[in-house]
Amino acid sequence: MTTTAADPTPAAGPGTTPATAPEPLDENIWLEDIYGEEQLAWVREQNARTEELLEDADYAGLESEILEVLDSTDRIAMVGKRGSHYYNFWKDGGHPKGLWRRTTWGSYVSDEPQWEILLDVDALAAAEGTEWVFHGATFLRPAPGEPHRNAILALSPDGGDANRYREFDVVTRTFVDPADGGFDIPTAKGTIAWLDADTLLVSTTAEGLPSTTSSYARTTVRLARGQELATAPRLFEVPEDHMMGMVAHDSTPGFERTFAVDCIDFFNRTTAVLRNGEWVLIDAPTDVDVSAHRDWLLFRPQGDWTVGSTTYPAGSLVAAGFEDYLAGGRELTVLFTPDAATSLQSWSWTRSYLLLNLLRDVSSEIRVLDPASGWASSLLDACPPLHDVNAYAVDDEDEDEAGAGDDFWLVATGFTTPSTLMRGTLSAGASGPSGSSGSASGSHGDGDHGVTSSHAVVKTSPSFFNESGYEVQQHFAISADGTRVPYFQVAPRDLVLDGQNPTQLSGYGGFEISRTPAYSGAIGRAWLERRTEPVMVDGAEGGDSAGDSASGYSRGGVYVVANIRGGGEYGPSWHRAALQENRHRAYEDFAAVAKDLISRGVTSPQRLGCVGGSNGGLLVGNMLTQYPELFGAVSCGVPLLDMRRYTKLSAGFSWMAEYGDPDVAEQWDFIRTFSPYHLLKDGVEYPETFIWTATSDDRVGPVQARKMAARMQAMGIPNVWFHEALEGGHAGASDNRQAAALEARSQHFLWRVLAGHP
């Protein structure tokens, strides 16, 4: 059966209501009942079919190897500092749901840290009969001289985005009983913040409080101890068609402020500060990101921003004095300006300095700025080529003169470099190197100012595969409109360019999210180190029936990451180049990388597979339907696929700024061109396809994956496989065992298809 979109409706004329796009026939809409008995029976039948195909002896060994990586007790236990303790959340084979724990710095840097267990989530789940998934902790700032004690824990009952928020005492290591005034917010989507020791700012959809069309919180209430949500005074509210509203409190001594954020959509928001009981809007365009730190406001425009006679380009970073700006002053200082190769990815304040994490052609560069010296800018010497290195503050709230206020973490990783955690300290000093482990030095303007930094290795991840046997290269493909698109290739050093290498191409291309180099023991074991078996051809071992110059050659996998438009690798302009009606550029970029790999002899269509999740699932869904001739296999995870109904499913309404509104006929005209569910056609030879999702995913939801698989199977398309984890949320897994199974299924599917012989 072929199902096509309805004929387009003529666009509305000036001054009229936009025409509504008709809904195409959808024979699988019944699958949208996520927890229906008949629907789950269909899911279980599909799961059994897929597991019978994939879960052979090789799969079992692969899953075990991946789980060994995830459960390794030698991996870095990343920590966050609060007061004198360093907190960590840890999962391993004995604690699949995890342990929330803490230690001291002296213990942490030892070979065998001694951890104080605060909460055993497995024990909690067993005691309460709920499969809790830990989603983090938010501490109350204690009174001066007092230790951190009270925290609000976020616990999801199924791994989804909806959390129950419960107050926890880290001294007694128990939840604070609601009968004694302890906070306990029912499970719902939302956010919380401490206002003071007895008051929370709660943005939630719990207990009948209104939600937006995107399924997030509309309302923030001021909740006192012992008070019911229903009776708590409403502090802030946003319109129903906005994405969400939230309120946060900055408790920095001397800079205590409460902020409200109206998230209109993913890329537009307003920010206000509470003054004398009234919200005072921070005057900036809605597409300018606003943040505050002590005396400063920072602005990052997503489009060009003109103030007076000066235009600040998209992706720049601009500073202003907080009080001066609110009073109407517009004296702005440029802290960063992007160029064709360089973009700002993130920033982090220590007590006195500002760390900028940049990408230059998708390799990291870090700069340190000193506001006390006219924003003197210094380069932090810590970033090898083709690596991702991120710097962020250890604890900017540490007010102790000899404390950690200007300390920073460095996390460095690369495709063949196990992650390394370093710690450093920033201080004012003359320009020039300082310290034995690294430095940030340089000058700004006419002065000889700089920030001195020494940093040293704290922890190093173990090696999980033979990294020395592989080479990382960066290449550039030319897209359909002439744009140069970078991609990383990780391949054996003895790679033979004969087009016969099993190659996995990964991408995302959306929401200004960057794909950067990252070490993965799972990819190393499950893909790079797997080897094909040579076959006999004309009496000799070889690769194909036409003969192979590399007779008897057993080859491993090639792993490729594409940095396509729609992502953030080159800043907001790279993202905006593939929005809405220009979405095709992301898919053209990805196809250009595929073609470049083929033309360079790295692989061939029957050896090339692609994999992506969420928006990346939409990406590979478009490879399946628009470029089927380029790929032998497609692994499509937790995907968007039905772009006509995506706004009506789970949190889909919140993504209209990215994709457009399919209810508007004029916009459906372009959205339909990248809606895989509606692009399927009879008579096309499609690649083998594995579609996977999770029942408890309350962000994208499982129904788009279900419907795509059902339609493809009904059309008689061969080798279409579907699997739905019954828990795990949008990540598809809530513990290491589930994560290993998910990764193993995808990797084993791709290898079975792509590593076979012609």
Could you write a compact summary of the structure shown?
This protein is about 20% helix and about 35% strand.
Mind sketching the topology for me?
Blueprint: H1 37-54, H2 57-71, E1 80-82, E2 85-92, E3 95-103, H3 105-108, E4 116-120, H4 121-128, E5 133-139, E6 150-156, E7 163-169, E8 174-175, E9 184-188, E10 190-196, E11 199-204, E12 219-224, E13 234-237, E14 244-250, E15 257-265, E16 268-275, E17 278-281, E18 288-293, E19 296-301, E20 305-307, E21 310-312, E22 317-321, H5 322-326, E23 333-336, E24 342-349, E25 354-360, E26 363-370, E27 376-380, E28 388-393, E29 407-414, E30 417-430, E31 440-441, E32 449-460, E33 470-478, E34 484-492, E35 503-506, H6 521-528, E36 535-537, E37 540-542, E38 558-562, H7 572-576, H8 584-599, E39 608-613, H9 615-626, E40 633-637, H10 656-659, H11 665-671, H12 676-679, E41 688-694, H13 703-714, E42 720-725, H14 736-754
Parallel strand pairs: 35-38, 35-39, 39-40, 40-41, 41-42
Antiparallel strand pairs: 1-2, 2-3, 3-4, 5-6, 6-7, 7-8, 7-9, 10-11, 11-12, 12-13, 14-15, 15-16, 16-17, 18-19, 19-22, 20-21, 22-23, 24-25, 25-26, 26-27, 27-31, 28-29, 29-30, 30-32, 33-34, 34-38, 36-37
